[in-house]
Amino acid sequence: MPDPDSKPDPENQHPDNAYEFDEDEDDDGDEDDDVEEDEEDAEGDDVSFEPATPRAVKLKMDALVRRMLIGPVSIHVHDVIIKGNTKTKGYIIEAEASEALKKATTMQELLRASNAVNSRLKSLGLFDSVMITLDSGPPEIPGSANVIIEVQEAGNRFSGEIGAYTKAEAKSSSVEGSIKYKNLLGYGDLWDGSIAYGFDHSAEVSAGVYLPRLKALVAPMTARAYLLTQDWLNFSSYKERSIGLSLGLFSNRYHNLDYHLALRNLADPSQMSSSSVRRQLRHNLLSSLKYTLKIDRRNSLVRPTRGYAFVSKTQIGGLAPDSHSLRFLRQEFDLQCAIPLGFYHAALNFGISSGVIFPWGNGFLNMTTSPSERFFLGGNLSPVCALGGPKALWGFKTRGLGSCEPLRQINDENADAAGKDFHGGDLAVTALADLSFDLPSRWFRERGIHAHIFACAGNVAKLTAIEYQSFLVRKFIESFRSSVGVGIVIPTSLFRMELNYCYILKKFDQDHAKAGFWLTFSRPS
């Protein structure tokens, strides 16, 4: 796109025929308010008309609005002109605007497209304001219009945030901080660096870049490098260290395709791990492709009261021609639904999630999966927020259920003879039911603080290394762990905080579960 200043300004050419669209402006309140409000209701957006002062032009505007209320008004978009982009490349704005605007064939369609483009441009986070103006096209082309997009680029490109959260893959809360810089190269790029430290001594340092749309790409692209350390000594007797790179190859509203490349090392500094874990202690390479389908029609992520959400994740590992490459197929499903009950803002949330992983390659029936890729249930996490696969169970600690194996026996009086390594599973299924409702106090209702009664159940099982031969569906269902409880929920724009009392209905002797009070901080996934 050539320099926007190099084109003649259509506003100067036709000063008496401009219509401006700015979602931040209010109505003029003049004698045409009734007509404008009818049009705004029809379009569903805040669109203001600012006709020029001469009475003749005002009469033409009145006639145009009446025609639009009666039926479609044909129009042809002759040109899209961009102004004010001193840093941002013009084609970045064109990619978000030109196609949608030029497809409009009526004035009504052009109004809707203009509002949608305005919202998309503001969502990029690159501009403090966006104003779209419609002007008449060249006189030799009747029924044509020029669309002028005038932007004001953001004055402050730095931003940052800090918070404490609980992730599904972590066994305790962590403190996370990040800093971001927008539009460094003028491509709408977003650069960020983050650091996270968990109360379990886990740590992660990462840096990444997000590119909204480039000339040769039809979808945004992301790249992120990370260094991660996780301590699982108290649960599975190993520490995991990994350094890797993730690439977002394709992403839109429903679909996401990622590539992951990471070098991992599993080690046991305590020398106490069970025989099954010791066989997995080594360097390995993760080279995988992951596809995610996500449809979320719920009205809220932290307190859904209506709608549904469905997530499907498919991952294939072992794409690198290396003997240490992890070869596996992994599939996860998650379905949640919220039904309003019509009193006290009450809603019933229920959901079911499942996942399975299996190795592939020569002799796969006798192979085992890596502990890093297996399913582990439990943790200080709300199942309502843990959308994306089987993860959380109220009342059960992280990696707190499933098959286990005694630790290595050594001649040490101080050694824990009752210690066990939890192995997780190749198959996992969870289910939840959550009844949320408002509290009687108005003070709580105004702040969104509400109560809930919940129940959940789940189980994991091993399928690899000939374990599948002894797997029985009936036995798997009979061994489901379950819990119920009641609690107070404090939703915020960033996370969901719960103070719950959990009662364990069913568990086995080796499971790590307790009845009592639990405090969770969960970020919607």
TrEMBL record:
Family matches, as InterPro entries: Bac_surfAg_D15, BamA/TamA_POTRA, D15-like
Biased amino acid composition, Basic and acidic residues: 1-14
Compartments reported by the entry: Plastid, Chloroplast outer membrane
Keywords: Membrane, Plastid, Plastid outer membrane
Major localization listed first in the record, in broad terms: plastid
GO cellular component, one term: chloroplast outer membrane
Pfam families named among the record's database cross-references: Omp85, POTRA
Acidic residues bias: start-end ranges: 19-48
Region (Disordered): 1-53
UniProt keyword Plastid, yes or no: yes
Domain called POTRA: residue spans: 76-153
Keyword Membrane part of the UniProt annotation: yes
Domain Bacterial surface antigen (D15): 183-517
Domain of life of the organism encoding this protein: Eukaryota
The protein, known as: Uncharacterized protein LOC111287342
